[in-house]
Amino acid sequence: MSSKNQNAKKLPPGQTPIKRILRWEIDHPGITPSNPKLDLKTYALVVDGEVANPVTLSWDDILELPKTVSVNDFHCVEGWSVLNCKWEGVLFKEIVRVAKPKETATSVTFECADGYTTSLALAELAGDDVLLAYKLDGKELEEGLGFPLRLVVPSKYAYKSALWVTRVRFTSKKELGFWERRGYSDTADVWKNDRFSR
């Protein structure tokens, strides 16, 4: 079987493989006018909402959490995919362990340094491939790829994998994020070709 056929078999419907993940400031001009300039000395990740243990994690705190490496494919709603991305970071399950969500928590809203938001059901964040990543392919994230911390949810289109995450807010009701309020699917399932709200 040719490598082209292997890729076609592996890819979700409507996707074409490319060699690298596109960066916002270069490949998507006008959507995010400039990348947020975040300093690791002052960076903080706020974890709050419907939790028993709200916390604010410094960069050193994040690096002290158990580290994981996950290799998976990255799919953009625009129709391109990058195969075998090697992400390094903290499983979202570790954030759950630290924050201790209340029984009322059903969903999580991610807030970003550029004002972007997206949300997922808590159950969708429980997988062993869902992480807050700080490295890609062995290198620190570039600014245009979400430095210093981004969400990675491989089973969803990339607009669910928020860049420049600064707050993780557990909620009792699902909230629509930036693109979801503009007609994109809230479920964003790559294998169901679920790109737009119906």
Helices and strands in order:
Layout: H1 3-10, E1 16-18, H2 24-27, E2 44-49, E3 55-58, H3 59-64, E4 68-75, E5 80-91, H4 92-99, E6 107-112, E7 117-121, E8 131-136, E9 139-140, E10 150-152, E11 165-171
Parallel strand pairs: 1-5, 2-11
Antiparallel strand pairs: 2-3, 4-5, 5-8, 6-7, 6-11, 8-9, 8-10
Low-confidence spans: 1-8
Quaternary form: single chain
The CATH architecture designation is Alpha-Beta Complex
| Mean pLDDT rating | 92
Residues in helices, as a percent range: 10-25%
Q: What is the third-level CATH name, the topology?
A: Sulfite Oxidase, Chain A, domain 2
Percent of sequence in beta strands? 25-35%
Q: Give the helices and strands as they follow along the chain.
A: HEHEEHEEHEEEEEE
Tell me the number of strands.
Answer: 11
Radius of gyration: 16 Å
Distance between the termini: 37 Å
